[in-house]
Amino acid sequence: xxxxxxxxxxxxxxxxxxxLKDNSSISYKNLIHEIENFSANIKDRSLIFxxxxxxxxxxxxxxxxxxxxxxxxxxxxxxxxDSFTKLVEEYYPDYIFFDKKNLKGLENFxxxxxxxxxxxxxxxxxxxxxLNDQLSLLISTSGSTGSSKLVRQSLSNINNNTESIxxxxxxxxxxxxxxxxxxxxxxxxxxxxxxxxxxATVVLNNESVTRKEFWNNLQKNKVTNFGGVxxxxxxxxxxxxxxxxxxxLKYTTQAGGKxxxxxxxxxxxxxxxxxxxxxxxxxxxxxxxxxxxxxxxNIDKIESIGKPIPGGEFELKDLNNKTxxxxxxxxxxxxxxxxxxMGYAKNFEDLSKGDENNGRLETGDIAYKDKxxxxxxxxRKDRYIKIYGMRINLQELENIVSNFGFENICIQNKxxxxxxxxxxxxxxxxxxxxLANKTRIHPSVFVFESVKEFSLNKNLKFSxxxxxxxx
Length: 471
Description:
By secondary structure, this protein is α/β, with parallel strands linked by helices.
């Protein structure tokens, strides 16, 4: 059964599906009513561009598109006009569902329906497109900002990953979550999918966890769980939970990059006092959302990405593409599962393509497994460099500096030089010596610079390209 069919279950109709910004509630019955209204205005198997905000309108547009068997492309609410125009020119959407204040330069479209602050526009001169029968969702990879390269997901991908996440997190009809991430980000979307599929409640929030309004909202609505990327946990690490009533908070989840070990340890220590669990997870847009998780009972393996989600499996390959069976040997991490996406699209012609991955994803990560078959990431294949002939893993270097107590980013811009950007103040000579002793790399290789903040992309994840552009 599709996750969208679950939303229509009779037993959920009186439940609160959504809590809006003004604290009003939307029942499943009312949500279904608006989904049907939206669907009545679009043609089945159309391509729809949806501007994503954590609001009622975007939720209805997304679910209405899925219900009508359309292909929906989820676009960041802050996409700039040039990037948006480029996407329109590359994909020729049949419909656009956008906040009216962001509709510009769309002479080839006419308004056919309004809902709240959103307008549904239909193209005047439709371009013939072939949409693969399995295709359902187009979404950017987590680091993309306006790129025309989108991940192609099938409804089967979404259903499979939704069911798997629901099973291992044991999401119930009585659960209440709150949005902390963009809906256009696979992690944020998966939280919405999993909870609505179970008749649970989603509190639609756009406030940062640094804002008092967020915590008031969380307390008032008796939120049971929420998700966050490492940046959000670096903020939570500094917040005094004693100021809030969090007795209903059962657990939080973390994905979207490797969390610093000391941050995770500090969060777990703080969570112990309020009887809350932390689930560490690993995923990618290409895997619809999640690939693995670390069970709470194994939280002592805090640096591990855990084990594959139900229905998935990992495989490690050496440089000769042979399977690695023994523990503690580094190899290329391969994921297999029904949630692996169909492939990528760069323009409307790619929308006719079938499943190019066949359930197999080369993650691009280097990893190893321990004797208990828990997996650990070592770094990205594309983050290995050579310094004076030595092969160096920049991710591993960042972990070393992090263990010294500093948030940092390591980048190579010049030959035989590693630039280390550190948040806040530090003792230059001491850090140089400690890093050289730990890595056996000559201190002259390192160039250190202090920064106030790191640039983040739309999903609150660090963007190396943005960082370089803003130095």
